[in-house]
Write a structure and sequence with these properties.
The chain is mainly alpha-helical. About 60% of the residues lie in helices and about 0% in strands. Helix 3 (about 30-45) packs across helix 4 (about 60-75). The model is unreliable at about 5-15 (pLDDT under 50). One of its GO terms (molecular function) is heme binding. InterPro entries: Globin-like_sf, Globin/Proto, Hemoglobin_trunc.
Amino acid sequence: MRMLPLILVLLLSACAQQPPRDDSLYHDLGERPGITRIVEGMLLNIARDERIVERFRRIDIQRLRDKLVEQFCVEAGGPCVYSGDSMAESHKGQNVSRSDFNALVEDLIAAMDEQGISVPVQNRLIARLAPMRPDVIEK
């Protein structure tokens, strides 16, 4: 059952991204404070994740945190504006593998678990983020 979100990422990555129809996901995630806790938890999980921590050693973590909060907020239908680079531009030349990507998704899921976010709500966020996968993974 825990593999369901990862399977959804794979299945939904080919779907066209549509704007959120409402802000219910934003509210279900705890609005901006809840999204911030999820992002910070994910970054702490990455810091302990030997599989991918090296990829983040030379990254401005504060900026990454801020841009992820913006992005998750927008994707959840919240009243935010994403001011970062596109996913393709942000990950250009980084040679992110499928296993790197999957590790990050696992760290995100663990952060949502830690915040008590239900699996259906987790799946809704992952479904919103999944179409970005091809822009992150090196072909």
